[in-house]
Amino acid sequence: MLKPTKMTRVVIAGTKDLMEPVISTFHNLNILHITDFLQENETFKIGKPLKPASKMSEYLLSLRTISNQLAIGKGSESSLKSRDLRSVMDEKISTLQKEVSSRFDEMRNLEFKIKEKEDIVSSIKPFFGLPLSLESYSGYGSVKVYTGFIDTDLELQLSKITNNYELFTGEHEKRKIFALFVPIAFADEVHKVLQNERSYSELKVPLLEGNPPVVLDGLTKEISALNQKYAQIRAELDNIKKEYSEFIIAADEYLSIETQKAEAPLKFAESPNAFIIDGWVPSLKYDEMEKELQKNTGGLIHLEKIEEDIKEEDIPIELENPSTAKPFELLINTFATPKYREIDPSSIIFITFPLFYAIMLGDVGYGIIVAALAYVIKKKFKAGELNSLALILFLSAILSIILGFIYGEFFGFPIFNVVVKGELEHGFLGAGPVIAGINLPVHRFGEVQMLLLLTLIIGIIHILLGLVIGFRNHLIEHGLKHAIFAKGSWMMILIGGVMVIAKLMPAVMSKLPVPTSDPVFAIGGGLAILGLILLIAGEGFISILEIPTLLSNVLSYSRILAIGLSSAGIALAVNTLSMNLFIRPGGVYMGKGVVLALIGVVILFIGHLINLLLGILGPGLHSLRLQYVEFFTKFYEGGGKKYVPFGYKRKYTEE
Amino acid sequence: MVVDAGMIAIGAGIAVGLAGIGAGMGEQAIGAAAVGAMAEDEKFFGKGLLMTVIPESIAIFGLVVALILLFVFNA
After folding, report:
1. Are A465 and A490 in contact (CB under 8 A)?
2. Per the CB < 8 Å rule, is B53 touching A452?
3. Domain spans of chain B?
């Protein structure tokens, strides 16, 4: 919690004949983060892949091609033995290649042919409108043929050129179609006439023989025969897919693992007879690793912990948090991976993110729906980012239900009796209870001032927490003096500033003189000035420009109230509109027909749906923004390297 | 302080409206850039979304001013 996992640097050396068992051991353990060996020297070179690497990659390549051609997706988990896979690999892959690729090629070929025939069909259809067979459009020595669509009467214009022509006209899909035969001598002039005609569009005659309907009939038969053949091959491929998909998925995993293992030496340093691996393991797992490694190599391998000369930026980062706070690492990783000695704020966000979200959303009805939605997503996606996101949303929604109870809101309707502008509104649970001295409900529109103050106090505490963490980070990295200059000064300015404003504001509002004699005001002012001096001493005069940022940071927390008010406001507006106008017995349009009453229900439904969508997006984004922009900027630097252990989590195969 | 309630309401409206326009002007450039970055690499979605909402503060400051006008000065 709060700190990344402690890592130990380890160097492993051994003779080359031990390389394979060592790689296998590490691959199974899945805990060693290998540092790439980069600086070659006379003795040590970058390692070469193990022998089977190229063979394995070849297999993998053909397997993935087949898998693509068969459109194989993710399978259910299975447990084929690696040993069994290895023995049948060669035979099965070559059979598959033979069976699949020829069929696949044929299928592509058929698709192409079908497309070709269909194109001809669509080009023949217009000629149904003309009384000629297809061969009569071509093959002339002294006659030029024009075919196409045209809207105007051609004869008039043609008669100006020559009377020696033959014109056929007809109709296709309500457009006029024509075929014009003219002697070649007039072809140029006729061509010009056609070009100038805007409605003219040329039609190419397919090079076929026979009457169009007869030709079409023949083509349709050919196409259906091709389609039949296509379907048959498709079915054959589906059968192959059914039969082999388990093997293909498992073999893919097996080969990926083997390739990974075979290529591992590329990260090692290698001399003619020995190899060295440099890497990081979580300190707690060091002993386990050592035991396993010595067992598998007969105690012949040499391990050494390296503790000196460690550069912080080389240490890989594995975040370590209790399982409940684990999903919140997603929000950290989206921003940046922390450095090794930095605080990992996942567990803090675990509290503040849902809290801010809940104060913003704060409605029992919306909370229940969001929680249900998150639950469904969580069930559907068992792992990965969506699962984490669903968990975050679920926690936030549960808290929203509690806050909704305090606000007394259920889809914007009052749960408890509440007085708004001197009028009593009845809630459906009657008078609100008193819990811990607070009269429920705390009505959001009625208590704006109090809530505004509360959000600002939350902001001050949150920013102060950020500064405290920043102080700690600076203390460890640069020492006390630097920490006081960089973060302590800001804390003083913030606390002092708050004390001054707390006393100054009421005085100014009620036009009293500035309360200089008030000890809180005086101490606060002194503290702020001291902070300012420290800040200038540490960071230079220019840092004064940053002070308004602090103010805007604090004010920024008022969004917690503002977003909440807008969400509650929309809900209220929707309810007032639909209830008072349409649904309530005394409503304006009540009793004027069922349709009008239904309009009310539709308004209610759509209004709340939109508000709900805004209610997931708005509070989520703004709560996150408060973490990233207001909180993180006070301490977080990031830029760590992620811990990526050498290994693989088997899903479809067993050792 | 005696001020016409209507004037306060107009003031609150102007505060929210102008702040909203300002925030929108800020967001348009960032939003366009964010969409561009996302077209290159979808991983920018999270960061892009975040960058895009940063100018939203301005709108919220407007809203705060409006709330203070309505609820503090109007009381």
Report:
1. no
2. no
3. 29-75
Task: State how far Cα A228 lies from the chain centre.
Answer: 42
Cα separation of A431 and A437, whole Å?
Answer: 15
Q: How far is CA A545 from CA A328, A493, A535, A551, A557, in A?
A: 34, 13, 11, 11, 21
Cβ of A334 and B56 within 8 Å?
Answer: no
Residue A643 lies in a domain: no
Total domain count for chain A?
A: 4
The CA-atom distances, in angstroms, between A436 and each of A406, A418, A433, A440, B11 are 12, 19, 10, 10, 39
Same domain as A512, residue A535? yes
- Asked if the model's pLDDT at residue A373 lies above 90, the reply is yes
By C-alpha distance, which of A554, A558, A370, A534 is closest to A451? A558
Name chain A contacts of B53, Cβ cutoff 8 Å.
621-622, 625
Residue whose entry in the numeric block shows the structure tokens 């993110």: A353
Q: Which of A158, A193, A218 is the last residue of a domain?
A: A218
Residues of chain B contacting A, Cβ within 8 Å: 46-47, 49-50, 53-54, 56-57, 60-61, 63-64, 67-68, 70-72
Q: Which of B46, B54, B61 sits opposite A629 (nearest CB)?
A: B54
CA distance A43 to A175: 84
Chain A: nearest CA to B18, how far in angstroms?
16
Show which of A542, A557, A572 is a domain's final residue. Answer: A557
Rounded to two decimals, the ipTM of the complex is 0.76
Q: Give yes or no for A143 touching B (CB within 8 A).
A: no
Residues A470 and A617 in one domain: no
pLDDT tens digit string along A120-171? 888 888 888 888 888 888 888 888 888 888 888 878 788 888 888 888 888 8
Residues of chain B with pLDDT under 70: 1-3, 46, 74-75
Indicate if the pLDDT at residue A265 is higher than 60.
yes
Residues A461 and A387 in one domain: no
A566 contacts on B by Cβ (under 8 Å): 63
A449 touches chain B (CB under 8 A): yes
Facing residue for A562 by CB, picked from B47, B53, B64: B64
**CATH number reported for the structural domain that contains residue A182 in this entry:** 3.30.70.2750
CB atoms within 10 A of CB A43: 10
Distance of CA A8 to the CA centre of its chain: 33
